[in-house]
Amino acid sequence: MSVKALFIPWPVALKEPERLLDDLASWTAINTLIFSNSYWKWGQEGSPLILPSGNASEGMGLQKVSPEDYASIIRFLSLAKERGFQVTCNICPLHPLSPDLGKLRMVDITESNRESNSMIMHGCPNNLGVLQWAETVMRETVASWSSLDSVHLNHIEYPVWPRNGLKDLFVCFCDHCRDKAEAEGIDFDKMKQEVGTLYESLTSPGNAPSQLFDYTSTGILNFIRERPYLKIWIAFRMNALTQFIENITKAFRAAAEDHLPNLKIGLEFYLPSLSKLFGTDYDELYSLYDWVAPKYPEYLTGSIIPLIADEITDASERGNVINIRKLIHVLTDLGPGPLVYQPCDPKDEDIFYSDTFNLSTINNQMKHLQKLKGKLPIYPYAWIYNHDLKSLKEKLQAFRDNGFNGYCLWLWEPDLTTKAIKRAHGVY
After folding, report:
1. By three-state DSSP, how is residue 123 classified?
2. In the beta sheet, which residues pair with residue 382?
3. How far is 353 from 65, CA to CA, in rounded Å?
4. Rounded to two decimals, what is the model's pTM?
5. What is the pLDDT of residues 194-246, one digit of tens each?
6. What is the pLDDT of residues 161-185, one digit of tens each?
7. CB–CB of 412/347 below 8 Å?
């Protein structure tokens, strides 16, 4: 079956369950619905897990939905199955969802815990408490979601959003990372020093010439070449995450064997050209999964890259913001960025500039997926912004042109009304 999947937020699903399912069945080609394993609402801090109140996770500090909400959700999943949809659960194993679990947070290069400006807590894969949390949630979800056909593992990566500044990307330097590095014979202090030098060169004015690089591809590569512990840091993060992913996947397979033997599992990962930089080695991991879903997120070009370029130019008092944006596009095989950045209000769709995605990105990323092609199904992930069906249609056509037989979609709440779904007839 060609998977054509759509993420559905729980507030939308539970508000008008029959209307939503009828509309999707009547007006779209969607055959798979993706739901979070937590009651997640955009702009809301805290996301209680969708688990029964009494289970093996008691005592772990996990927040859960009320028994009444849990029963409503399970009824909806059964209804979706009755209407012919496959049901998929989206689980983020590195995101402990309870504020009581703050001790599991990653620690950035400035030695502060990542929090404040983010709704999402990132746990460190080297922290055994994070692994215990993830394995428990995985087992409990499989045991209690009886209508489940598959699971998406999502956001198993180091932070990609610099919501509190670039320091958010320079992680993790907690005691668990120190212990693991030293056990592997890595000089943790030297590694941290070289990563700190890179961070300071990007965010501080007036550094010594030895700390600086010119903002060109060659300049950046030379800077890294002269600091071998930067490469060691990238490899250390990727190896830690690979081990973490292998462990939680093993826990999932064991739980599926006990409760839902035909359950499938897939891995979502960041833009292919950047995924390994943020720790997800999909070339190494793909054989563990039934499919993979590489992401082509417009929030990268519309929010993340502008935020990074703005901080570098504002804090370091060097460089040109337009040139730095272009350089990041070149280095990451994104294709050309927009000639003009059109500002938009981020409160609704969490994006600062509209119309920044270039279709050449999809073609440019193919070389990074060569090892996976023909080995397992690949369902690329696309987003819609500003209700732009024309752009979405072009993205899905580009996926087909590159041999992808299926896709995953993120739509916003206004795109899931009856009127909006009918308007999209023939697009997805």
Report:
1. strand
2. 409
3. 35
4. 0.93
5. 999 899 888 887 555 445 556 666 666 677 778 899 999 999 999 999 999 99
6. 999 999 999 999 999 999 999 999 9
7. no
Q: How many residues does the chain have?
A: 428
Nearest to 222 by CA among 207, 236, 210: 210
Please answer whether residues 170 and 199 qualify as being in contact, where contact means their C-beta atoms are separated by less than 8 angstroms: yes
Contact 309, 328 (CB under 8 A): yes
Cβ-contact 64, 15 below 8 angstroms = no
In this structure, what token pair is assigned to residue 21?
A: 């399912």
Cα–Cα nearest to 408, from 152, 142, 25: 152
Alpha helices in 302-372 (DSSP H): 305-316, 321-331, 346-349, 360-364
Domains of the chain are: 4-162+238-299+345-423 (3.20.20.80)
Distance set, CA 91 to CA 103, 325, 357 (Å): 20, 32, 27
**Residues 54 and 70: beta-carbon distance below 8 Å:** no
Rounded CA-CA distance 359/356 in Å is 10
Q: What is the DSSP letter of 300?
A: I
Structure tokens at 135: 């394995």
d(CA 272, CA 294): 6
